[in-house]
Amino acid sequence: MIPLTTNLAGIEFPNPFILASGPPSANGTMIKKAFDKGWGGAVIKTVALEPTPLAKPRVHILSKGRQQTGMVNIELLTDISIDQWKRELDYIRSHHPDRPIIVSIMGGGNPDDWQLAIHALEGHGVTAYELNVSCPNISGKKGAQLGQDPDSVAMVTRWAKEVTKLPVFVKLTPNVTDIVPLAKIVADAGGDGITATNTLSGLAGIDVETFSPLPSVEGVGSLGGYSGHGLKPVSLRCVVNIARAVDIPIFGCGGVETWQDAVEYLLVGASAVQLCSAVMWRGTDLIEQLTSGLERYLEDHQFDSIAALCRKALPKLVNYSELDFTNRLKAVIDPAKCNGCGLCIKACDGGGYQAINMNDLRGVILDERCDGCGLCVGICPTRAIVMSVPV
User: Fold this and answer.
1) Which of 9, 141, 249, 363 is the least crowded, having the fewest Cβ atoms under 10 Å away?
2) Beta-strand runs (E) in the chain
3) 15 in any annotated domain
4) Could you tell me if 279 and 369 lie in one domain?
5) For 352, which DSSP code?
6) H/E segment holding residue 265
7) Any residues with CB less than 8 A from the CB of 211 and at least 6 apart, and which?
């Protein structure tokens, strides 16, 4: 059995699957149960000096048929007091003395907001801290508004490092033009690691009958944080750019639902991943699929550790100008797999080069028209189309 242990900032996690700060880590009982099932660690729901009232409802699921495709939440911080969190942490530690627990904290432009929370919780089994400078749902100079300002990010990181010797991670926002300057600021200010990323500011939709934003609280709503699988391309890009810019460890966070998603994050520079939306949809039993799938992958590809896998894809990411523009790949349809649905024809007519016809209820590529764009490959429901060099 290949070990799934991974190390970030001197913290050893038994596996790279961590509960992200959010509803799945809202109290000690939930975290204890997740640890019982094998989760590698947890980041508790963000703590502030005062508990935060929570709107009802505060989550809207985006779906296609029965498949969840994303989620927008107007979730805020924990509604549990710091004194209660002391008891919650003690309870977790009584059952899991060694499992990493990261405390997420949030404040504003006052050092007491951050330092008093650290002082209060330090003696209760805390492994590390995560500074939430990225929640898009907070008004005022907090959350993402604070995290979009490099000087503020540096200031907050230094405040935390002044009062603790434990590792300090900073959770960055994707709601910026360029995340790299923020990552460099964290490293320069003494931050021990980065979580990339929090949710993307978004609006789930509008009820076209009542005109109310979704989710709606007594007929009104607000912009929220978009999460789920659709966030993964954004957060993956952020991890790539951060990994190229700084040498401190990275938690990948955003759209992780499967072990394959986790592998992608590891390949581009993360050392572990955090999950929230997938756990809210599928429960903490998901850990069994994640760990068993990752174990098989490492064995099949002859990796002896998580560390051996990290950053393997980075050398293959090049600038657009460095791509080979002379390749002759074009679409090829396997008639044995084609079911004649015609989706590829509609796609090629609408967004391609009108290069597919139907012949004997099977799609046929017109080589002289095919431009090799790859649209049809992704559209085909039976995976009958591949890209190949024409014979």
Assistant:
1) 141
2) 6-8, 11-13, 17-19, 41-43, 59-64, 67-73, 101-105, 128-132, 168-172, 193-196, 200-202, 224-227, 250-253, 272-275, 330-333, 356-359, 362-365, 385-388
3) yes
4) no
5) S
6) helix 259-267
7) none
**Are the C-beta atoms of residues 134 and 170 closer than 8 Å to each other?**
no
Boundaries of domain holding 83: 6-316
Q: Give the pair of three-digit tokens for residue 157.
A: 């990181």
Q: C-alpha angle with apex 174: 170 to 180, nearest 5 degrees?
A: 70
User: What's the CATH code of the domain at 368?
Assistant: 3.30.70.20
The answer to whether residue 135 is catalytic is yes
Q: In this predicted model, what pLDDT tens digit does every residue of 308-355 receive, in sequence order?
A: 999 999 999 999 999 999 988 999 999 999 999 999 999 999 999 999
Q: Which of 135, 338, 344, 370 is catalytic?
A: 135
**Looking at the 3D structure of the chain, how many domains does it have?**
2
Please give the DSSP secondary-structure letter assigned to residue 123. Answer: T
By the 10 Å C-beta count (0-12 exposed, 13-18 middle, 19+ buried), 51 is classed as middle
CA distance 290 to 302: 18
pTM score over 0.85: yes
The answer to whether 200 and 175 are in contact (CB under 8 A) is yes
